[in-house]
# Entry
Amino acid sequence: MSIVKTIVKRELGAYFTSPVAYVFLVIFLLLTGFFTFTAGSFFERGEASLASFFGWHPWLYLAVVPAIGMRLWAEERRSGTLELLFTMPIATWQAIVAKFLASWLFIGVALLLTFPTVVTVNVLGDPDNGQIFAGYLGSFLLAGTYLAITCMTSAMTRNQVVAFILSVVICLFLVLAGFNPVTDLMVRWASPAVVDTVAAFSVVTHFDGFQRGVIDTRDLFFFLSVIGFALFATGVILRGHRSA
Amino acid sequence: MIRIENLVKTFGAKRAVDGVSFNVERGEVLGFLGPNGAGKSTTMRMITGFIPPTAGRVSVGGHDVAESPLEAKRLIGYLPENAASYPDMTVAGFLNFAAEIRGLAGEARKRAVRRVVDLCFLDNVLHQSIDTLSKGYKHRTCLAQALIHDPDVLIMDEPTDGLDPNQKHQVRNLIRELGKTKAIVFSTHILEEVDAACTRAIIIDRGRVVANGTPEELRAMSELAGAVTLQAQGATREELEVLGRVEQLDGAFRIFPREKARAGELAQAVIDLVNRRSWKVQGMYSERGELDEVFRRITLPDTAGRMPATTAGRA
# Structure
């Protein structure tokens, strides 16, 4: 466990010693602000909820999370530090979990820094703070899912740009599978069972419940299993590179 | 400490390492020589457990690297080929990280970092970030990382690559010093390093071990070994040919013994001849053999490694 902690510390340090962390935090907060208050018409809605805040997250994360995660393994492979890391007495899973956790924690920090929005809505009205908490939890899991997928694509290549694009494409698929305009289109030619099955793979479908304030174990299970699967695949890919 | 049996690694159709076996005991410094692409780095990566072998076994300190990798890796300090380290960290941060990964904490960690900083002369750059360092410092930072847990086994891939002559000298001395209590394997292109630091050397070519012995033994395989080079006024080729095969060099003669076994008598015979003829001697050397000639001869079988210098004047 202490090894995981050591690597998490190193990775977090790597974010904050470079300007990447600060640039990311500023951009993330600007974008959430813009989407919530301008594009999401927070004030015009006239309701004390963060629907306009969370509703954008599946799209916002699409650009932001792969940018955070793309360096995780691609950079280690490019610079040769992968060899250093895996000749230290570390199990592969420890390194994978630690690197994932570090980035996830970093995104968690970014998410926590959106607290002024929560304050605003509490000052202006009387929102359901339980619902807001569920929304934050769902949003954090959503980011974790994208991040785990980015871990996987980052392990595939030593080129960060390739890792970024691959993960955006995979995550975009996970969004679109349950995006209303797309499901409406599918209803015309596919049976409802097929549409439901495809939509069940979508992060949007599972994120919806959290936004409404419902923490459903099935949704929790969905996010955690995608994370688990993607991290497992990362391990398989890394092992494959070494024995090739 | 290190036992390697029939190690094989194939990349596609290419056999990068093809049945390599050797042992290294505590107190030995093994120089690992071979042309580029001979399989040195691949072998080292298999010893350190970074890549799994296609066939064969590696055990370090009694732990099979494939079966109990963590136990084996705990005993090993490794300096990879490019001496990679995390460029965004400071030297101190990086060494502390390595120490923590190796399970050192608190006072023990501070002591370990202090020790390797002194050993590798990193004091001036301790709080500098690694990407601002010169190549020599980067290299020594990575070397310090390999030494942080005072490992029983030290594997170094070209430890003196990219260092200036003073730094090379320091690193060689360090290797020799450490070799008294550890099992060390290091690869190099520089043959003089074998003399400077090794107790034993292995030459590997196309994935196979082609020579294994002490530097003296390897040198004795040289054609030159046992020859006497004489630079003297009045000396003539005809008279020297009585003693052995003679080769004319720039203003000097090189006499090769007829039989390697009687090489020891040659020098005395030359001196006797010089005295009888009262030649004026300007220089006389007893050749020990040259490692790079041996190296070339066994790793270049097509041309049999005949260097122009040794064939000159033979016709």
Notes: The first strand of chain B starts at residue 2 and ends at 11. Chain B has two domains: 2-213, 228-311.
